[in-house]
Design goal:
The chain is globular, with a radius of gyration of 22 Å. It has 455 residues and is α+β, with helices and mostly antiparallel strands. It is built from 15 helices and 18 strands. It folds into 4 domains: 82 residues, Uridine Diphospho-n-acetylenolpyruvylglucosamine Reductase, domain 2 (2-Layer Sandwich), CATH 3.30.43.10; 118 residues, Uridine Diphospho-n-acetylenolpyruvylglucosamine Reductase, domain 3; 110 residues, Alpha-Beta Plaits; 85 residues, Alpha-Beta Plaits (2-Layer Sandwich), CATH 3.30.70.
């Protein structure tokens, strides 16, 4: 491993002893691995050298960015090298002519959004963790709150530069809008969680920043009523940017965590919406349509959020929900996605499992696209009891989601913690093809081994 220092030429960026545990886990810190080396790379050429060295010496490599992953994708399972790409954090170009930005993988989502908006442009993908890297977002095909209108990360990736397991540099895609030139290797790499290649550069699509954005809060007596209202909102031709649902009990935790107070405190659940567009008059017409829908769906009220402080409060509390739960108790984060017309049925089943097992589960998520986030809460249970009960609960909710036509993950990825549920639900044919692709691109199984689709 000492040869890594020669390859990099900077001993301060190669750690061979006493590697901080932070770099051998994910953001939750409950799944841990072991690494013999931690390398902070700064260029594609350095990544190429590391991968060539790893291939020649049969050394596993685990890529990572900001370390915000929640499912163990950044945990080194087979030892070897942890490859930290957070130092590759330059925005190389913002090109208004092609409406694209070219970035290195370590660029933070929040930084990219800030820089393009200074030019009146907009990068729509908006997952909850704004300090995640663009490379990490691409590796998990991150979604977020604005997916209902604008889509997910995959819809904004035009091109990628990727270093393969043997050290070859591959470029896929271009700045062009259209591409009907052979198989889409670019889309194969998006969402692959570092198992097929190391992303070293990305070209992402931008759009014009909407001129007007308005928030709306719909309080309901309970979550069931609110979730049933969502389909009417989607069908109502009001083109919402975001449609979020959240239970009052998790809002209360968010209030305690932030010290802020959420509007309309007597509700049992809330739907939070954002509408954006090019003119105030068009937004007002859509708000009036929404008002009629809300009345017909038994909303307790409709609050148009015009005060900047109130808007900030609502989205700050919504954005910190996982952290506010984690501050109270260990929990298992879940991001199951089901067909949007099955969201209410799935949430009702979650409540049945709560009553049956006594395990509390807090629900919130992206109501506009069926992406349900759950926090399965440990409480004061012993390690043995928690292991037994959590396995029962997780098996039940994943089985139900698959029964309803849903998928194991909407945006967090599979990693380690969801692998067993994914393998159970995936067809043998699909898994065989995934493993064949892995074998073709990484025949020695060096890149992020034991993740996603591997036994």
């Amino acid at each position: 491993m000492k040869e890594l220092i020669d390859l990099i030429g900077d001993p301060s960026r190669v750690i061979l002893e006493n590697i901080d545990e932070t770099y051998q886990t994910d953001s939750l810190g409950r799944l841990r691995g072991i690494a013999e080396a931690l390398v902070f790379v700064q260029t594609t050429e350095e990544v190429r050298k590391i991968m060539k060295f790893a291939s020649e010496n049969h050394i596993p490599v685990t890529p990572r960015g900001a370390g915000t992953n929640l499912v163990g994708s950044t945990v080194p399972q087979e030892g070897g090298i942890v490859l930290d790409l957070s130092g590759m954090n330059r925005i190389l170009e913002i090109d208004p002519d092609t409406m694209t930005a070219t970035v290195e993988p370590g660029v933070l989502l929040c930084d990219l959004q800030t820089e393009v908006e200074k030019l009146g442009l907009f990068y729509p993908p908006d997952p909850g963790e704004k300090t995640a890297t663009i490379g990490g977002n691409i590796s998990t095909n991150a979604g977020g709150m604005r997916a209902v209108k604008y889509g997910v990360t995959r819809d904004y990736v035009r091109a990628l530069e990727v270093v393969l397991a043997g050290g070859e540099v591959m470029n896929v895609g271009t700045k062009t809008v259209k591409d009907s030139s052979g198989l889409s290797l670019k889309n194969l790499l998006i969402g692959s969680e570092g198992t097929l290649g190391v992303i070293t550069k990305a070209v992402v699509k931008l759009i014009v920043k909407p001129a007007v954005s308005v928030g709306v809060l719909l309080p309901f007596k309970d979550l069931k009523t609110g979730i049933h209202a969502v389909l009417n909102v989607i069908r109502g031709n009001i083109d919402p940017t975001a449609v979020e649902f959240v239970e009052k009990k998790v809002i209360s935790l968010g209030e305690e965590y932030t010290g802020l107070s959420f509007p309309h405190p007597n509700a049992g659940a809330y739907i939070i919406l954002t509408l954006d567009g090019e003119d105030r008059e068009g937004i007002e017409r859509r708000i009036e349509k929404l008002r009629e829908i809300a009345k017909g769906c038994h909303a307790l009220d409709m609050l148009v959020l015009t005060d900047p402080k109130t808007i900030e409060t609502v989205w700050t509390i919504r954005g910190c929900l996982v952290k506010s739960v984690e501050a109270k108790s260990e929990q298992i984060p879940v991001d199951i996605v089901v067909p949007i017309n099955k969201s209410a049925e799935f949430i009702e089943y979650v409540h049945e499992v709560e009553r049956e097992t006594g395990v509390s589960m807090i629900s919130f998520g992206h109501a506009g696209d069926g992406n349900v986030h759950l926090c399965v809460i440990r409480g004061d249970r012993s390690e043995e009891e928690w292991k037994r009960l959590s396995e029962i609960v997780m098996e039940k909710i994943y089985d139900k989601s698959h029964e309803l036509g849903g998928l194991t993950s909407g945006e967090h990825g599979i990693g380690l913690s969801k692998k067993s549920y994914f393998l159970k639900a995936a067809s043998k044919v699909n898994l065989q093809i995934m493993r064949s692709i892995k074998q073709a691109l990484d025949p020695e199984n060096l890149l992020n081994p034991k993740k996603v689709f591997e036994e």
